[in-house]
Amino acid sequence: MKVNKWFILLAALSLVLFMSGCGKSSGTAGGEQSVLDGGAGDNATELSYWTFVELHGKHFEKMLGKWNAANPDRQIKLNVTVMPYDDMHNKLSIALQTGTGAPDIADIELGKFPDFLKGTPQLEPLNDVIDPYRDTLVKSRVDLYSKDGVNYGIPTHVGASVAFYNTEILQEAGVDYTQIITWDDFKKAGIQVYEKTGKSMGTADTSATWQESMLLAQQGADFTDEQGNPKVNSPEMAKALTILKDLQDNNVIATIAGGQPDTEEAYGEFNSGKYATAFMPLWMMSRYTNYMSDLSGKIAIAPIPVIEPGMPRSVGGGGTGTVVTKTAKDIQLAKDFLAFAKLSEDANIEIWNTLGFDPVNMNVWSMQDVTHNPDNEFVKYFINNPFDVLNEIKDEIKLIKSVPASPTINNVLNTVTLNEIFEDGKDIQQALDDAQKQIEQELK
Amino acid sequence: MIKRFLYSQKVAPYVFVLPFVLVFAIFWVYPLLSSFQMSFQQITLGQDSSFVGLDNYSKLLTDTVFLKAVVNSAVYMVLTLVILIPFPMLFAVLINNRLMWGREFFKSSFFFPALTSVVVAGTIFRLMFGEMEGSLINSVLGLFGLEPVKFLKGQTTGFIALLSLATWRWTGVNMLYFLSGLKSIPDDYYEAASIDGASSFQKFTRITMPLLKPVTIYVLTISIYAGLAMFIESMMLWNGNNSPKNIGLTIVGYLYRQGIEKNNLGYAAAVGIVLLLITMIINLTQLAFTGLFKKED
Fold first, then answer.
1. Superfamily of domain B54-289
2. Integer Cα distance of A80 and A58 in angstroms
3. Which among B15, B244, B260 has CB closest to A93?
4. Which portions of this protein are annotated as coiled-coil regions (chain B) (predicted)?
């Protein structure tokens, strides 16, 4: 009988232990973790930071050392967790929704940002820490991460879109990229490249809308109307896609593995010299230096072609807003540090040095010693200096709005519509009308 | 008092069953009831939820993407049944045959894929079926002078990749079920049949297949459920939940897209309830049809 008693006790104990285990959170978010102390002392506050770009952590590491040196009584240790793009946004969304487990600071990508602004945002307003720097920043980039005049995110870069030309291929075909002003010029050059080398001049993107954004911005249009309602079957959009489809039909551009230039498969295709051009925001530079080392010394940066001369030659593309969550341990500290790490002039210089992004403080754009530093890896990699191009187009950088409908618009265009047009050859207007219908249905 | 309580023959069984009942109630019944309730609500991030009646369900009825997901899941389920029941059964019979050499080797090598993480397997299959000339399948096609195929961009070719993954992964598991079923068939039956002059084919159709029926029904039931609930395979093969033209979108994938990616938890709950209904209806019909609910003689 004694055994039975012990057995019952054990069973009861294990049940209690099991049940008590249910309420505990595991405390880790998965992904790659590292604690940056930046020379902080024992009294430092530990803040957690989630991101989906490993490089962003590097930038924060630099700025953390500077912050801790300048603020001995408000030192910080930063616990950085890097997770894949979808994973991080999904986890953050659940953590904010349930009110537990969210980090103090997080990166939210532009395409996902509107989802986090629904209802009452579970993010801290950042106006007070942005205000001191506001005059030096590109207004449109700050406004991207706002709702009703309240700023919830701090931008990282302008993301001016440019053309990246592989000059080796162009020389082989006898094409001078500096003479490409309009899409017609691009088409002529592309036909020549295809005839001489059998290679594609550019890509027909099926899983991203960078190219459509560029062509819409040139026509002063957007994916949405003034009220933020979807408008993807507009004449401007049809014109944009007709231009691109015509390029594809003439073998100037071709679909690429991965669906767009910013994917692993596409890096490989570019690196082996199968495509001569990528039209992308400036941050694509870091992908060249990191993943396409074979092309070092061969890539030139230039303004993107326009439909007619005189049209704006760039549009801000992509972006990351860094936020402070409502559940942050020390909200004021997190906000002050964030402003210091991303908005100060020093921070903007480091954003260029470490990340190769075009900083939102445009004063940096004209600092010759910073932008033309011969030791900078980006200056070394490209044939011409990125800032020579940026300064040439700096008054022409348009904006595509990010509104609550944007995630749905992107999803429909990038999974269905662009594939139908470039892979199946579906009628453009028909594909766009279907997309409009689908988007409206999903937003109902 | 406590002693009497614990030693009571009436109470003790309940105490021992309690852990299971609790787990069942907390992790199954409660979430189910709660998602049923959620399916009638509009839930937004950080907001109070509000009841919207049947709105979520009426929206589902006209949702073409959801319809696409249902069709994809159904087609996938049917095709996995067509592949993953007859072939494993055949392999099990072959391996069970005493004349077969290397039985243990085949058994373990067929089972091995089931031990591999679906995340790893899915990633490898994605690379194998990549659209570049150098990816495995395309380079094999190249040997025969065929042009590279964009496998993961077409409906049919995408499903070929998806089904290859399922076949590679689950053949061994189903084969083991059938093998265990075969072990329970007495040799006497086959001996008697041999004496009566039955051919191998006759023995297979008249003895093996009927006696394997309970195992077959079991495999059928779990395969229907697994087919309809498939998600990770598709997610890994297309490197995310968004496949071109939604060719790989499944019902669970759509639930994930709505609930987690788009923060529309009420709508996602409705998707989940519909999935539960579809699975229940198909499985109960199938079980009734195969005679599982009939009284045993």
1. MetI-like (1.10.3720.10)
2. 10
3. B260
4. none
